[in-house]
Amino acid sequence: MASSTHDQHQLLSNLHGGATSAPPPTPSTNTNNLLSTSNAADALSRLLHRLPPNLSLPTRRSSLSATSPPSLSFPSLTPNQLLSSISKLGYVQLTGHSVSSELANSAESESLELFNLSRHQKESLFPQNWPFGYDGGDDEDETLAESFRFDPSCSTESNSSELTLSSLRVFARALEKVGLSVIDWLMKGLGIENPVGNDPDRFCSIMWVSECLTGNKPGSTGGFYPFIVGLQYQIRCEKQSLLSDSGGWVSVLPHVDSILVTIGDIAQVWSNGKLKKVRGRPIATLGDENDSRCITMSLLITLPTESIVAPLLPKVEDNKEEKEININDGEVQDSMFNSIDFEDYAWRVYHERLLFKDPLDRYRVTQN
């Protein structure tokens, strides 16, 4: 004990500049650097280790270097190939699909015209019918952009032939077809039954059209909404920012004419946590020097509001008792998420505009 006490006193003496240690640097002796690079790095490391493990630190998206997402050819895609490529990051780009660039450009032209309408026209033609309708942003925060949320029919309250949105409608249906195929392949890769199939009563699609603002900030393109998979056609060479489980804000540059596919929170719950997800829709990255105007057109395949979301685990019969099994190693697996009332969850996620807190945290099962 005496030796231990002596060592502690000796350590404290050294830390506080005892007789055996060199005096700490002072502004008069070291005006350029008060702390060495090594000490600063150690202090930062200790701070980061003390932070909660699930905390996502905000990152300036403008400083991120863009990477190309994993690329898969749609015609030759298999369930195992898709699952292997998308499970770690939560996103992938599809090439060789049937959605034409002409259709995408035509849909974009129609969508741009929507933002030229007066505020009164927007609100009367696209009234709020949760989760669809026009969102004028936030009057108190000019950085929140306007957006429109359509069902795949892209209908309006007017029969005017001047605003038919025919190209946007066809474009939404084409993306929906690709998205349903992606869901089917994912479910087969996971070894679980597809809960939506092609039955329109079991899923819901939202075509989300948002204006991109110069110097836009995370979340400035409107609220988030839960989804199974999201699809966004890459019309031009333009970086996209994603809020990913695997690394916070990441910047990607998909190939022109590819479709950026993102995994949503519903798919993560269905997979019992095996899939990484992307929170919200990809955001086009515009620098302050860019005064051009652009929009994003994202199709979200989601669920009807009356749905209940829970992990989908394969089941086998053993002595007439059903057991949930791990699809990878055959061991008994517990659910990682509690059941979610989708309407309540969707409303909270959209209106609270959660950015750096995972909205699924409150539904995770605490493992003893």
TrEMBL record:
Record domain Isopenicillin N synthase-like Fe(2+) 2OG dioxygenase: where: 243-281
Residue spans of biased composition, Polar residues class: 1-13
Top-rank lineage group of the source organism: Eukaryota
Pfam families: 2OG-FeII_Oxy
SUPFAM superfamilies: Clavaminate synthase-like (SSF51197)
Chain residue ranges for the region called Disordered: 1-35, 54-75
InterPro entries: IPNS-like_FE2OG_OXY, IPNS-like_sf
Protein name, UniProt field: Gibberellin 2-beta-dioxygenase 1
Organism the protein comes from: Cicer arietinum
Gene that specifies this protein: LOC101515623
